[in-house]
Design goal:
389 residues; mainly alpha; Cytochrome p450; 2 domains; 8 strands; 57% helix
Length: 389
């Protein structure tokens, strides 16, 4: 057979198979735009602004609709009411984690951010108990935050009121608080090890936010066989050295920090496989990735909004001066006496739309949601909450 004819026939078969799978997979899924073979609705979704694309589609198809990321049907829950109904009324069913192929190559099903089932419960229980032992939610953690705030003020004073980009300083604040819990110490703002770690964290966030990564997550074959920024992300494993240092100096009777507690748990649970060095690396990646970037971004945008809305800033300052004054640090007990400031902080978080597409979720079993059938193994994002197989 002529090679060209064979190629045409093969491509035709692939296209027909793709169309058949898309049509047979729709069933009682929510409505949505008609997908193209193989690429699905990828041309209707702007990889640089996925949330805006989902908002536009929701205007045509309602708060619950289906898009195809490649050949995979993806259910989107858009807006407050649909997301609240899913997570509040059917929280257990919608508690699964969906697919994030680029991150999965690094995490390998470990950690807490993208795991589910028993592994997620085991890691979450350990994480909550250990952080509680280190004072999370208690006075000791509040003292860490207050101390870091004082360090931030000192660093800003060194600029002598000259124009500066506060991004670096605001990124350091959450990093140092988490460092104090994880590594039992904080670094100086100019420490080279700290700067290298912060650079890698920022690099990973930039990579994960890039259009290329969205394409890789849609067409998984690209991850293994094509060059690109995802290769840099896959190589950024930066906690192994610290773990090895802790292993060499570990005293099981005197744990110093979070890593020590995990290493002790490893020894106690042998030959159980949940607590391993690889699992610890993934857990640390999740803690820093989820805890530092979100906080520093909120601080940065909050500062920008306060600079823009001077009348709001004036009222916040008046309340701070009245309740706290100029000679002590704020504390959690002040919240009840500062309703306006707390309302402004909540409004900043609402307004900036910090994580518009959320972490991929999945339903843990078949469910009828708003008269649509969503089968198990589909993932979802919220704002968009997307569910897909």
């Amino acid at each position: 057979m002529d090679p060209v004819v064979a190629l045409v026939i093969s491509l035709s078969c692939i296209l027909l198979l793709s169309l058949w799978r898309q049509r047979s997979g729709r069933g009682r899924l929510p409505p949505g735009p008609m997908p193209l073979p193989i690429i699905g609705n990828i041309l209707q979704i702007d990889a640089k602004n996925i949330s805006k694309s989902l908002t536009n589609l929701s205007k045509a198809y309602g708060p619950v609709f289906t898009v195809y990321l490649g050949t995979r049907p993806t259910v989107v829950l858009h807006g407050y009411e649909a997301v609240k109904e899913a997570l509040n009324d059917h929280g257990e069913v919608f508690s699964g984690r969906g697919s994030f192929p680029v991150v999965e190559r690094v995490a390998k099903g470990l950690g807490i951010l993208l795991t589910s089932g028993n592994r997620w419960k085991v890691m979450r229980r350990f994480l909550v108990m250990t952080l509680w032992n280190f004072g999370m939610g208690k006075r000791s953690t509040e003292n860490l935050v207050q101390e870091e705030a004082r360090c931030l003020v000192e660093e800003l004073r060194k600029t002598k009121s000259s124009p500066c980009d506060p991004t670096f300083f605001l990124s350091c604040v959450p990093c140092h608080v988490i460092f104090s819990i994880i590594f039992h110490n904080r670094f100086d703002y100019k420490d080279q090890h700290f700067l290298n770690l912060l650079r890698k964290l920022n690099e990973n966030v930039a990579i994960l936010s890039s259009p290329w990564i969205q394409i890789c997550n849609t067409f998984r074959v690209l991850i293994d066989y094509f060059p690109g920024s995802h290769k840099t992300f896959l190589k950024n494993a930066y906690f192994l050295e610290k773990i090895k240092e802790h292993q060499e100096s570990l005293d099981i009777n005197n744990p110093r920090d979070f890593i020590d507690y995990f290493l002790i748990k490893m020894e106690e649970n042998k030959p159980q496989t949940e607590f391993t060095t690889e699992a610890l690396v993934s857990l640390l990646n999740d803690l820093f990735g989820a805890g530092t970037e979100t906080t520093s971004t909120t601080l940065r945008y909050g500062l920008l909004l306060l600079l823009k809305h001077t009348e709001v800033t004036a009222k916040v300052k008046e309340e701070i001066d009245h309740v706290i004054g100029r000679h002590r640090s704020p504390c959690m007990q002040d919240r009840s006496s500062m309703p306006y400031t707390e309302a402004v902080l909540h409004e900043i978080q609402r307004y900036i739309d910090l994580v518009p597409t959320n972490t991929p979720h999945a339903v843990t079993c078949d469910i009828n949601f708003r008269n649509y059938f969503i089968p198990k193994v589909r993932f979802f994002f919220s704002h968009g909450i997307m569910l897909a197989s």
